[in-house]
Write a structure and sequence with these properties.
Blueprint (H helix, E strand, L loop, with lengths): L6 H7 L5 E2 L7 H6 L3 E2 L8 H14 L3 E5 L5 H13 L3 E5 L3 H14 L5 E4 L3 H7 L5 E6 L3 H13 L3 E8 L8 H17 L2 E2 L3 E2 L5 E6 L15
Parallel strand pairs: 3-4, 3-6, 4-5, 6-7
Antiparallel strand pairs: 1-2, 7-10, 8-10, 9-10
Length: 228
């Protein structure tokens, strides 16, 4: 069965190729964002970041995907499009704001990926407290900046993160970036000290930081024939 790949049509329908992120910022932020694209309203994840998210989903083949902070649903649709291409996987996105409630489902429906998404209209804390499903092997943290690392720790401490983790908005021009990046660095160090990899960071445009929770226990031998 051939994979469904309608991403380019989605991008054309949503005009991702038209607007420049730098057109919606002033000062130092404009210089850091001028080469990046975004939706017409100038909000939400950059087109380059949504492309990256989709490609990572296609390459890593996750089954249980988490997003905190849906808002415009650009990242949500990108991850769901990756699941659609793979033929499996499901995105759970959490956002209590009215904008996510109105734009998220409609944008997903227009893109034809709504069956790959569950919209949870509640706070992340409420979701963590009541969730009893499988761990998420792909997590994109994009909720309110002051809550992002605290939210990630809440999922991690409950054993609900099992592989890939990505934080959005680590661009150094962001007004709350200094404290936020410091919190991410502490979380990354904790992963390094225990069972994770701190990953890489890009500070252009809104920026992102990737890291990973190890999925193979140290005591688990890796068969030699897999690499022969």
């Amino acid at each position: 069965m051939n994979p469904i790949d309608n991403w380019h049509q989605i991008c054309r329908d949503e005009d991702y190729y038209v607007e420049r992120e730098g057109d919606h910022h002033k000062g130092p932020a404009q210089a850091r964002t001028k080469d990046f694209h975004c939706g017409p309203e100038g909000q939400g994840s950059e087109f380059e970041t949504t492309n990256l998210l989709r490609s990572l989903v296609m390459a890593m083949k996750p089954k249980h995907l988490l997003e905190t902070g849906c808002e415009q649903a650009h990242g949500t649709v990108a991850m769901a499009s990756g699941c659609q291409f793979n033929g499996f996987g499901h995105v759970t996105t959490i956002d209590k704001c009215a904008l996510a409630n109105s734009k998220g489902p409609s944008r997903a429906h227009r893109a034809g990926v709504d069956k790959f998404i569950t919209f949870e209209h509640m706070t992340t804390q409420e979701f963590v407290e009541q969730y009893d499903g499988p761990p998420f092997d792909f997590a994109f943290f994009d909720c309110d900046v002051p809550e992002r690392v605290t939210t990630a720790r809440a999922f991690y401490d409950k054993g609900l993160l099992s592989n890939f983790i990505m934080f959005h908005d680590v661009g150094v021009w962001h007004p709350r970036a200094v404290k936020y990046i410091g919190e991410i660095n502490e979380f990354a160090q904790d992963l390094n000290n225990h069972d994770g990899l701190s990953g890489i960071q890009n500070t252009l445009a809104r920026g992102w930081r990737m890291m990973q929770v190890k999925t193979i226990k140290k005591s688990m031998p890796i068969p030699v024939e897999e690499y022969s």
